[in-house]
Specification:
Blueprint: E1 2-3, E2 16-18, E3 35-37, E4 44-52, E5 59-67, E6 73-75, E7 97-99
Antiparallel strand pairs: 1-4, 2-3, 4-5, 6-7
Length: about 130
């Protein structure tokens, strides 16, 4: 297996990788080829690859295609109401992140998204990952 001419990318746009680049197919048997798809942007990706038999004049082109969509995640509450508080008082509310996808995934909350450098934080988030 090898990428077709003009398809040989080695940067962040290279979403497809052939894990099984060579092997032996026995007569009358099947052989599983593994490709990885690791996109770096939310869009449609395509890549042309060529399968060829060594020592033979036989080859076949393949198109690999993949698309990315944003994960379906949300919270268990549409808003958080801390009610009325006196100045300097504390209140605590819990919000749960809900994964509506069929596969698990990791998350991380960037501290700079809710804290301003040099100021006392008005909110704490736990856990952040």
């Amino acid at each position: 297996w090898k990428p077709e001419e003009g398809e040989q990318k080695t940067g962040p746009d290279d979403c497809f990788r052939c894990v099984t680049k060579r092997g032996t197919i026995l007569s009358g048997k099947k052989y599983e080829m593994v490709f990885e798809y690791m996109p770096t942007s939310v869009s449609m990706h395509e890549s042309f690859w060529t399968f060829s038999l060594l020592g033979k004049n036989a080859s076949q082109s393949f198109l690999l295609a993949g698309s990315v969509k944003e994960p379906r995640i949300g919270t268990d509450k549409p808003n958080v109401n801390f009610s009325r508080l006196l100045l300097g008082a504390n209140a605590r509310e819990k919000v749960h992140i809900v994964n509506k996808e069929h596969i698990p995934f990791s998350f991380s909350i960037v501290t700079s998204s809710y804290e301003v450098e040099g100021q006392i934080p008005v909110i704490t988030v736990s856990p952040t990952s």
